[in-house]
Amino acid sequence: MAGDAAASSDVMKDWTQFVRGNEAYRTETASGLLGRLLRALATPGFDMP
């Protein structure tokens, strides 16, 4: 339970930085998420829901 709270506060920090318009942070975050998605798609046995 405590782990969930810590994770959600990290998400809020990320979101706050994102919303504040730090362009470099925004680009890095977007490309990081895109990269993670592409790696997931490239994983054998990964099916889109």
Could you explain how this protein is built, in words?
With 49 residues, this protein is mostly helical. 78% of the residues lie in helices and 0% in strands. It is flat and about 35 Å long. The two termini are 27 Å apart.
Question: End-to-end distance, in Å?
Answer: 27 Å
Overall geometry comes to flat
Main beta-sheet annotation: none
Count the helices. How many?
2
Low-confidence stretches: none
Task: Decide which structural class fits the backbone.
Answer: mainly alpha
> Residue share in helices?
over 70%
Please outline the helices and strands.
Elements: H1 2-19, H2 23-42
How would you summarize what this structure contains?
The chain has 49 residues and is an all-alpha fold. It has helices at 2-19, 23-42.
Features of the shown structure:
mainly alpha; flat
